[in-house]
Amino acid sequence: MSTDVITGKRQKKIRIEFYKPEDCRQVYSIGAVGGHSPYDFRIGFYNDNPRPGTDENGVQVIQRKLETEVILSPLAALELSRWLNHHLKEYEAMFGPIQQPNKSEHISESPADNSRENSDIQGYI
Q1: Angle at the Cα of 111 (from 110 to 112), degrees rounded to 5?
Q2: What is the pTM assigned to this prediction?
Q3: With the C-alpha atoms ordered 49, 53, 54, 58, is the resulting torsion angle positive or negative?
Q4: pLDDT by residue (tens digit) across 77-89?
């Protein structure tokens, strides 16, 4: 991939070469948790695993395993948000609205708008 970059009054050409090393780890995740400070954004990706039976109070226990954490600068978080929104719109244009479990309405046009409404436990209740 080649990119033209303007620095001051000069224009440079830069080529970025992407490669995937053999030890690159792929992680499937059903959800994410995280937060931010003035300095960075932290996103932890997790999977849920229901434990058999119930605890001593009759409550089903679901073990939430944090698979990996990504730490981003505010600028990188903004770029990730724009990238995700772009690709979500493309996906929905091709395949239709993404349905949330146990909900009849679809994700709003801006996923950030419904961040408080995300499923806490997906598919286990």
Answers
A1: 90
A2: 0.68
A3: positive
A4: 999 999 999 999 9
